[in-house]
Amino acid sequence: MAMYVFKDAARKHKLLARDAQKQDKSSRFYCPNKKCNAHMSVRSLDGVSKAYFAANQSQSHVKGCPYKSRRFQPNLYDGNGFVFDDALLSLTMPSKSQSKSDIPGEHGTGEVAPKPIRTIRQIYSMCKSYDCSDSYNGKIIGQMLLDERSAYMYSKGVFGWRLIELKYRYYSSDRKEIVLVCPQNGKEYTFIMRFGNEKLFKEIRKIVYENRNHLIIVAGEWNSSGKYNAFCTEIKSKKQLTIVK
Ligand SMILES: [Zn+2]
Fold it and tell me: Near ion ligand 1, which residues have CB within 5 Å?
């Protein structure tokens, strides 16, 4: 599912879910992924839930399309309660044990009030669902996630809390650093994960190395590393990382 689509095969005319009209109900729309030929249509236009787009069964998404099956469903979460910087800060905190009943939609018994999105996976999925110049609870998507779409917003560097789509480059055990690059960024920025904790470094190094052919999503508060066009963040928890396969 997606919160935006294109009206034309050339992907020139965008349509946001919230702007969809009755006359759009029978139209075929195009997946935001140019390499995907899914036939998409608007859903939930008349319902109390928010409208969104999904592929029709006749022509679904290509394998690996990021708009295929997203865990983010806006109606299940409390958008107004989401504060991006706070959410990322809590990803750097040690895990608290959490009961399963906290997950919306998991149990049918009793009314569970929607909660804001919280995990890196949920935040990443939310950012991918929306157009990068759109916003979620007042925050611009491209100011939360640095990916191919938002790279143009970062001509002066990457500073502050961000999720970044990265690819592994190398690691240094001496410096307890893992070095990654933003594959779509023409600027060739380098991103360094730094660790104070040896055990955590080894654990994450293993995960990153094993997934060196996949996209690695890292959440952190980014700052200049002291080297030209290189930015760093301190990794304090495994919650700051997820892999996209
Ligand atoms: Zn697609």
Answer: 31, 33, 36, 38, 61, 65, 67
